[in-house]
Structure formats: C-alpha cells, structure tokens
Design brief:
With about 325 residues, the chain is an alpha/beta fold. Helix content is about 55%, strand content about 10%.
C-alpha cells in the first residue's frame, strides 16, 4: 500500500517537473512591461529577460536608474519614467507601451514597484504613514493593471504581481503587510476574471531578501523619527529599551535575508515564459519552511510564536 502511494507521489512530481519545463514559443516577439526597475528584483528581471531575447519595457522611478539599466542591457530594452502613485504618469506610460506593442498586445505585465517604509508599531504611526505605502504597493498595482489590462488580454498574456510572505502572515505594523494582503486578494480575483480570456495571473511571495526596499540604515532612522514624534504616553508605555530591541530584531531579520535575488527573478521568469505557470511562487527557504507553513497554523499558535520572537513594551502585562 505504502509503496503504491510513494510511486504515485513520485509520478506526480515527475509529471509536474516535465509540465513546468515546457516553454512558450516565439519569446523574442513578446513584450514585457516591468515596474520598479531602478534596482533589486526589477532590475535583475529586466536583465534576465533581455538576455533571453524578450522585448523588455522597463519602468524606472528615476532617470539615473533608467540609465544604469540601459548601460547593462542590449538595445532591445527600452525604459520609461513611471511614478505609480500618479495617475498622469501611469497614463503617459500606458500610451508609451501602446505605441511600442501595437497590435501584438502586451505579453507580460510585472507589478514589482514597492516600498516598505514607514513601518513600525502601529501606535507610533499616522494614517498618512499607512497611506504612503498603500499608494505604491496596492493602489499603484491596481491602477497600472487596469490601465494595461486590455493590452494583456489582446496578447492572451501574463500578469505577475509581487506580493510577499508578509501578505500571508503579518508580523509587524505599518502599511506593508496590509498592502501585500491586498495584492493577494486583487490577484486572486483578477486570475479568475481573466481566465475566460486566456490570461494567466501569478503571485510571487518572496521571503526576506537584501534589496534597497528597506536597508537597515533607513529603517532605523525611520523608526527613530517615529519615536521622536510619539506622545509622552506612548514613550512611557513602550520605553526606550523596546526601541533598541525592535531595531535589533530587524537587524537580525536583515542579516538572515538572502543576497541571491535570482531566487525571486527566476520565479518571475518562469511565470512569464512557461506554458503552465504556477498560481503562486514562494521564493526563499524562509518563505517555504517558516512563513508559509506558519500561515496555515492555528491563530493562537502563530500569535504565541510571534509574541515570543518580538520585544515586549515596558508596561506590558
């Protein structure tokens, strides 16, 4: 009996391995639009796809980032300046994409642009701190997708949205986890709606990686600013030792993050080029063996583990 079960499991994984190795034909004729290409995942993905011969349309926030990317890629790759928080910037980029892709449509849309700060204990933040993150990570994803959806539908292409393991398990305050939970929900709904038109939607859920989205120096300065602006009551309740412990915890998280960004970009590339892409990709050992399994555990157990790992306020009961 057990032998048959093992054989079935082995056959299943062999079948999945074979199925996922099948690649879309005529990749050199396909256009892919990527946001957030100044650095990190977006920059690396743009270079990977350019090396494979795809026609990459890379959106950068700054001209400096765009120039650095062009210097490292072929003449096929083209750049545009895009601020995903501004409707007029998205409209201009959309028109630019339309002029490039023409009647072929847009094969791939990768919503990669994102920020992580401000972040910290919720009571230290303002409503605007939450809004600032949501505007980029969630509303930016939604508006860019809605603006380019007709072009993706025309090509029967792919939408790849970068969420996070923190879109499955929230471990700290601020807008980041909220925005990534939103991206997960938006992507799930979009996948079902666009399946009628042959469009596939994939979600990338990276663990912790060392990118420019949240370097420790910026995070610590951001946290100190929040502490300085907090009320005397909040400072008394939490205490300065909490601030120090919180920063140490975040430092250890950063140190545990992988520097190999190809874990993530390989998932993105597979979602764009495979005949049968996955619905979700978990990137990183911490994502696969800690955060995602934790997200399926009972809430009381998750709360206990996170509480054990987190610093305690001075006035905690």
């Amino acid at each position: 009996m057990w032998l048959y079960l093992v054989a079935l499991v082995v056959l299943y994984y062999l079948w999945r391995w074979y199925r996922e190795r099948q690649v879309v034909s005529h990749l050199q004729d396909k256009y892919v639009f990527i946001t957030g290409c100044d650095s990190g995942f977006g920059s690396l993905l743009a270079r990977q796809l350019d090396m494979r011969g795809l026609k990459v349309l890379a959106a950068c926030l700054t001209e400096e980032g765009a120039k650095q990317l062009r210097d490292r890629t072929s003449d096929r790759l083209e750049t545009v300046i895009l601020d995903v928080t501004k409707t007029e910037s998205i409209a201009a980029a959309t028109q630019w994409v339309k002029e490039h892709v023409g009647e072929r449509g847009l094969w791939g849309l990768v919503n990669n642009a994102g920020i992580a700060l401000p972040s910290g204990p919720s009571e230290w933040l303002t409503k605007q701190d939450f809004v600032n993150v949501l505007e980029v990570n969630m509303f930016g994803v939604i508006e860019v997708t809605l603006s380019l959806m007709s072009l993706v539908r025309k090509a029967r292409g792919r939408v790849v949205n970068v969420a996070s393991v923190l879109g499955r398990l929230s471990i700290s305050g601020g807008g980041y986890s909220i925005s990534k939970f939103g991206v997960e929900a938006f992507s799930d709904n979009l996948r079902r709606e666009l399946s009628y038109f042959g469009v596939k939607v994939a979600i990338i859920e990276p663990g912790f990686f060392r990118t420019n989205i949240c370097p420790f120096e910026r995070f610590s300065q951001n946290l100190k600013n929040q502490w300085n602006q907090a009320s005397s009551e909040v400072k008394e309740i939490y205490g300065e030792k909490y601030l120090e412990s919180f920063m140490k915890t975040m430092r250890s998280l950063e140190n545990s993050g992988s520097e190999d960004l190809s874990w993530v970009t390989d998932c993105m590339e597979h979602a764009l080029t495979a005949c049968y892409p996955r619905t979700r990709y978990s990137a990183g050992w911490d994502a696969k063996f800690f955060y995602l399994p934790m997200s399926y555990m009972p809430t009381f157990l998750v709360d206990a583990v996170i509480s054990w790992m987190s610093p305690k306020p001075a006035k905690a009961l």
